[in-house]
Amino acid sequence: MPETLLRGADVVVTMDDAGTELARADILIRDGVIAAVGQGLATTGTVHDMAGCVVTPGLINTHHHLYQSLTRAVPGAQDALLFGWLRTLYPIWARFGPEEMFSSALTGLVELALSGCTLTSDHLYLYPNGARLDDTIAAATEVGLRFHPTRGSMSIGESAGGLPPDSLVEAESKILKDSIRVIDAFHDPRPGAMVRVGLAPCSPFSVSRELMRDTALLARDKGVMLHTHLAENDEDVAYSLARFGCRPGQYAEDLGWTGADVWHAHCVKLDAGEIDLFARSRTGISHCPCSNCRLGSGIAPVRRMRDAGVNVGLGVDGSASNDSGNLISEARQAMLLSRVAYGADSMSARAALRLATRGGAAVLGRDDLGQITVGKRADLAVWDVSGIDSAGSWDAAALVLAGPTHVRDLFVEGRQVVAQGRMTTVETGALAARQRRLALALAG
Ligand SMILES: [Zn+2]
């Protein structure tokens, strides 16, 4: 691949260990990797003028349900707590098939890309009417984002005391078999990987103890990561105490669900002992502030988690509980929500941006991503700060405090996915029209 030079950025926010920010700096990209960062760099390849722009590492989203991009703002699910929200949406999701999964994934991925995201994970835990994980991987390949899809699952239906309807749950033997299939077909453990597969039972209240344990054993055998929802709200903790006789952290630990290869979404209700457990075991957390606000779940103690040494990344969560999928706005929300509970000095704008970059890279086990330093992959977000939403700003922290909330350009593995605010890979007008048509058909 020929070289690409990003020349003369107002500020390059490197997110290196020291938090270095470089003024009027260049970034040279070669073969998808950052080859040099500094001033006065030259190339015979393509040159992009970065005057008036701040460049950051591409943002990393650690929790999503891309399929939910087709169920935003559903009446009946707009004002409910988690369990009631789920019960309203399950019958709608049961009518999805491969086309709904693919179109929704495209929509969610484009939305993320335009908000600065270069890597997202996805948690797909229902497979109605022939839908497969493959549908979402095809969408990510088309959009050009780095992708960590997880093969999710639900196996305990209503008749067995679980929350989902029986029609949406799968046999555990089938879940494990398909998990092996998608790992063997798509998982790439190498540095620079564009696709890494993980395993992700939906939550302790929708699968059995045996499936949690067997999934952990399979993941370790295959060398892939583990993901689920944990301690999301008071109902979730109450269910754990009533059904399992222990708190969620204990349940996770007992079944092999702690370690550097595990990350849990939400963790709003972790107590001090559980935070200590996560720090000791290097278990990661995906913090989803907008979703936690939307569902009234509570305020995750992120500052305490970070002070204890827990790896924390950000997640937009699915669009049925956000209902937006804008990752730079999610960083702002993380900062604001932390301050509501723990004070104005509990999370700086730069700390929020760090959660969205280095934090996400640590949670997803990607030491090849999350910072603009030589040798890391060239995943870069370019923010035009010459517009009205940044006018009058004094500092690069304005990116989180003020705006913009959409990128000018986005590079993934050195390939330009967004140019001048437009997708280079997907025709967004036609996509939005298709998504509207599918939503109307579901509502009808
Ligand atoms: Zn979720």
Automatic annotation (TrEMBL):
<protein>
    <submittedName>
        <fullName>Cytosine/adenosine deaminase</fullName>
    </submittedName>
</protein>
<dbReference type="InterPro" id="IPR050287">
    <property type="entry name" value="MTA/SAH_deaminase"/>
</dbReference>
<feature type="domain" description="Amidohydrolase-related">
    <location>
        <begin position="54"/>
        <end position="417"/>
    </location>
</feature>
<dbReference type="GO" id="GO:0016814">
    <property type="term" value="F:hydrolase activity, acting on carbon-nitrogen (but not peptide) bonds, in cyclic amidines"/>
</dbReference>
<dbReference type="InterPro" id="IPR011059">
    <property type="entry name" value="Metal-dep_hydrolase_composite"/>
</dbReference>
<keyword id="KW-0479">Metal-binding</keyword>
<dbReference type="Pfam" id="PF01979">
    <property type="entry name" value="Amidohydro_1"/>
</dbReference>
<dbReference type="GO" id="GO:0019239">
    <property type="term" value="F:deaminase activity"/>
</dbReference>
<dbReference type="GO" id="GO:0046872">
    <property type="term" value="F:metal ion binding"/>
</dbReference>
<dbReference type="InterPro" id="IPR006680">
    <property type="entry name" value="Amidohydro-rel"/>
</dbReference>
<keyword id="KW-0378">Hydrolase</keyword>
<keyword id="KW-0862">Zinc</keyword>
<dbReference type="InterPro" id="IPR032466">
    <property type="entry name" value="Metal_Hydrolase"/>
</dbReference>
<comment type="similarity">
    <text>Belongs to the metallo-dependent hydrolases superfamily. ATZ/TRZ family.</text>
</comment>
